[in-house]
Amino acid sequence: MAADPGIVLIFLSIALGIANIFHFNIVIVFAILAIVQGIVLAFVEVPFLLKIFRVPDWFIRGVQTLDQNLYRVIFYVVMAVIQWLSITCMATSLIALAVLLTIAAICYGVAGLMKQEFHKSNVVASVDVSEMPIDAQIRQAL
């Protein structure tokens, strides 16, 4: 089974942000934005993190609005445009992030045009723990 492209984008965004933060020009701003995008992507693509970390209600509502293909397209297009703008300063490895964010936006756009429903991650599947033995509850929590 292939890795989820959203998960790959999380790690790539943070890694390329860190790699480009050592430029001594305006690219550092785009590197910081890439790191922030990676963190936001983590909450969007792995909704279970919203239950683990204490985040404001407005942030949770914002992430939950991205549970439709159209809103995901807009989200990824905005992030891709931000990284494409980094080329105006200097051609760096942030181009790879811009390309992959664009591809993700296109994929969500095609899914939306084909009327495919958005599917959430299986990580957040709720289980009624009252029907489970204690050892199974512990395994489920871990």
Automatic annotation (TrEMBL):
Primary role: Golgi membrane protein involved in vesicular trafficking.
Transmembrane segments: 7-24, 30-50, 70-87, 93-111
Subcellular location: Golgi apparatus membrane
A UniProt-annotated Pfam family: Cg6151-P
Main location: Golgi
Topological category with respect to the lipid bilayer: Multi-pass membrane protein
Keyword RNA-binding part of the UniProt annotation: no
Similarity field: Belongs to the TVP18 family.
Protein name, UniProt field: Golgi apparatus membrane protein TVP18
Protein source organism: Ogataea philodendri
Record's GO cellular component terms: Golgi membrane
SMART domains for the chain: Cg6151-P (SM01077)
The keyword Translocase belongs to this UniProt entry's keyword annotation: no
Record keywords, A-Z: Golgi apparatus, Membrane, Transmembrane, Transmembrane helix
Gene Ontology BP term (one): vesicle-mediated transport
Tree of life domain: Eukaryota
